[in-house]
Write a structure and sequence with these properties.
13 helices
């Protein structure tokens, strides 16, 4: 069999049909060919000479693909012997044989981003194999007859498979990147099995960045992870980082990236300090460790009777299962509280005073009362599997779907499924900004007054959020106006209008009027408060083109509160002659009516002079209409139309 490359080189050596060719992503000058003669051959561009041959299968070979990562010199092949094999092409040795298809596998490919091998067969099934353990992870069948071909969308973790009777596009994994950032801005994230780091603090807080701008960040390589992580969990003091994935966990030192300990676990949670952590080995087996040694004694009460999906760190150990959330005391293992709710995540505030339980389409903010729990324990009350009801009080329920979130003090910042960046403080939620793409919260840097977020490719974005604004709002919501007054001078000027609108929403309009710097907003507030002198002052300072509607609104309000002189001035400057006529008529101002008539035209002019008992010769049509309407035959208008009589 001959293989030619654009008139330059012809490769000869196969004795049957060449079924597939693949280029080595680590060496663009190397390619492999798979053939029905049961061999895989390695070639180099520009040279017609064969590098080497591997007798890979007992029957013809249909497909070959290179491992995309830098750490393994592997290829995967499929054969008509119904097997899939992984090879080390440097040593020309078979690493693993995978069996499971009941007909010839048409292809097998390494996924570029996920630790899986995807294969499909003439038996109509698509199988997913763990590329680390080579165990079968999942099998899909769409009843579309034989599967023949595949293509990968590398930027979205999507796979398209072609069948005899159609095409199926499969979404794999998740878009959310695997990352962790501490309060000082030190960022660690994983790309495949590579650990990378950057420091948000290195960005200048004085750079005038437009909202939502993508920010370049210097990244360095920390090392590699032995497992493909789907979660990075940083210890409370930042010294350790736990990588969780593939049913295992590894604890690394954050600076040197050294393996501290490892084990089997579906989920890991850190306690209040970096000396204690918990590992969920399986859904009914939970271990607690102290100083990296398993703690003896009684475990967490009731954990073996509940099926647990994940655990969460905080002042008390949290866990979620189907239809419930439970919290345990780290030291005693007693149930602090069990809550019936369908949760997908739990977020503890840094102070340990608040916790958010996020469900699919809403989230609940609860206040944790440690003293109430301790009081029940000291009283010797029998703690049941339901725990102590007084340990948690619900603060608010917000109908928002939380995608990612971080606490900053008592402020809860989160992104939503509708691509909005919001924050919750007190009892209400506010929007920072919408975004065009899904973003994931990294954290908040107080020195920058910015929230930092990342997209699925770990591109960094920033949005402004003044912590002093949040603190002011918190003080107002607590009713501590003295503290709010102390915070107010520290709020940046560009944020004052945001604060004013917050106060207006809280029905604190007098204070909002004092704080606002937006003339339009101040004018609206002044009208609502009937502070017409301030409204007049604001309107007089506006350009004439913008002031007309303001004068009209001011006149209407002045009339409502019986300030006729101000109403007359406002209607006059607004050019509202109809309102001036009615006002002059109401107060019996004959001279005012005359002036309106002189400025008016057509019907308004006639109506004005008619009220004064006058007639104008240039208004003959209107006058004729009046004569005809009231049958005033005695009235003689020299220029009246004949039909008026």
């Amino acid at each position: 069999m001959k293989i030619s490359t654009h008139r330059s080189t012809v490769y000869e050596g196969h004795s049957h049909y060449a079924m597939n060719i693949a280029f080595n992503p680590k060496d663009a000058n190397t390619l492999a060919s798979a053939c029905l003669d049961r061999t895989v051959k390695m070639w180099s561009l520009g040279s017609p000479h064969l590098n080497f041959t591997m007798d890979a299968h007992d029957k013809g070979i249909d497909y070959v693909d290179f491992y995309p990562g830098p750490d393994r010199p592997y290829i995967v092949t499929t054969g008509d012997d119904k097997t899939i094999k992984v090879w080390d092409y440097l040593s020309e040795s078979c690493v693993q044989t995978m069996e499971g298809h009941i007909n010839n596998p048409s292809f097998a490919v390494f996924h570029p981003n996920l630790p899986i091998i995807i294969s499909a067969s003439e038996d109509g099934t698509v199988k997913f194999w763990n590329s680390n353990t080579y165990r079968l992870a999942n099998t899909l069948s769409y009843a579309l007859e034989r599967a023949w071909c595949v293509t990968l969308r590398r930027d979205a973790n999507e796979v398209a498979v072609g069948y005899d009777e159609g095409i199926v596009v499969i979404k794999l994994g998740r878009d959310e990147p695997t990352y962790s950032m501490d309060s000082s801005g030190k960022l660690i994230y994983a790309r495949n099995q590579l650990a990378l780091s950057g420091n948000i603090q290195s960005l200048s807080p004085d750079d005038p960045l437009p909202e939502g701008t993508r920010i370049p960040l210097s990244i360095k390589e920390l090392g590699t992870t032995e497992i493909f992580g789907n979660a990075l969990i940083r210890g409370p003091n930042g010294r350790f980082v736990t990588v969780v994935g593939d049913g295992q966990y590894i604890v690394y030192t954050a600076l040197a990236w050294r393996n501290k300990c490892f084990g089997v676990g579906l989920s890991v949670a850190w306690g209040g300090d970096s000396n204690a952590y918990a590992v969920l080995e399986n859904r009914v087996k939970l271990h607690v460790y102290k100083n990296f040694k398993e703690r003896g004694g009684v475990g967490m009460k009731g954990c073996e009777s509940w099926s647990i999906d994940a655990i969460f760190g905080g002042p008390v150990l949290g866990a979620r299962g189907k239809g419930f959330v439970v919290f345990w005391d780290w030291e005693t293992g007693e149930v602090v509280r069990r809550i019936d709710v369908e949760a997908k995540n739990i977020y503890w505030s840094g102070t340990g005073s608040f916790v958010v339980i996020a469900s699919e389409d809403s989230f609940y903010v609860l206040r944790f009362n440690r003293d109430a729990y301790n009081a029940k324990v000291e009283q010797g009350v029998d703690i049941t599997d339901e725990g102590v009801e007084e340990a948690f009080d619900i603060v608010a329920e917000i109908p928002d779907s939380v995608r990612t979130a971080k606490w900053v003090g008592d402020c809860f910042i989160y992104t939503t499924a509708s691509n909005r960046i919001n924050y919750f403080v007190g009892t209400e939620s506010y929007t920072i900004s919408p975004s065009d793409i899904p973003l994931y919260i990294l954290g908040y840097v107080p020195a920058h007054n910015r929230v930092y977020l990342a997209d699925k490719d770990m591109n960094i974005y920033a949005y402004s959020l003044s912590l002093s604004v949040v603190e002011y709002q918190t003080a107002v919501l607590r009713g501590d106006m003295d503290a709010a007054a102390e915070i107010l001078p520290s709020i940046p000027k560009e944020q004052l209008n945001k604060v004013a609108r917050f106060l207006e929403a809280r029905d604190m309009k007098e204070l909002a009027l004092q704080i606002s710097t937006d003339p339009d907003h101040r004018f609206d507030l002044a009208l609502q408060l009937d502070d017409l002198d301030v409204a007049t002052e604001i309107t007089r300072c506006m350009p004439e083109a913008e002031a007309e509607t303001k004068w009209k609104a001011l006149g209407d309000r002045a009339l409502a509160v019986w300030r006729f002189d101000l109403a007359k001035e406002a209607f006059d400057k607004a050019g509202d002659l109809s309102s001036l006529m009615l006002l002059s008529l109401a107060v019996g101002n004959r001279d005012g009516l005359r002036k309106v008539g002189d400025r008016a035209a057509n019907n308004l002019a006639f109506a004005t002079f008619f009220q004064c008992g006058l007639a104008r010769e240039d208004k003959s049509c209107t006058g004729s209409g009046t004569v005809r309407t009231y049958l005033c035959t005695e009235v003689i208008i020299p220029t009246a139309h004949p039909w008026a009589c």
